[in-house]
Please model this.
Amino acid sequence: MADLFAEPVRIFLEKGLEALERSSKFGDLKRSVAERVRREAAFDREVLQALVAAGKDRVRAGALSATLEDAEFRAACGSPIPLARLLPRKLDRDAWPARFRSGRFAARTAADRTEADLAERAFRRIKLMRTPALADGAKFDYAYARDLMAALELELGRKR
Model:
């Protein structure tokens, strides 16, 4: 993804954020980042579904957790361009399944306003699950993490 950022980052560093946001390259970059992170969220959602199904099988849970991906999200965060500018759209909670709009999931995500907020929350869960010192004894709510990825996948998949 580094090549994708090269020209937009040059514009950003030389001319500033406003000039970047006016360039056609920025629209292309935002669409590409959203699609790449959406695909990553879709993959992670599937892995997390398998983790939910694995139940208390710690060996299988460890193996599955190791396959969770966050490279595209990390690449976007590693850019000098703020993530909030790359994934700026407001969340459309009305399009979410009913189970996401109420109860514990809604309460946990209430502070999230944009795609960037939701992406940060979702991939923070992935990072925690992949941290060996935490993963050994932690009891993660895999269903919550799966639902975060499903909501993120839904948001990033909306027509741009």
Remarks:
- Residues 33 and 45 are 18 Å apart (CA to CA).
- The mean pLDDT is 91.
- DSSP finds ten helices and no strands in the chain.
- Residues 24-54 form the longest helix (31 residues).
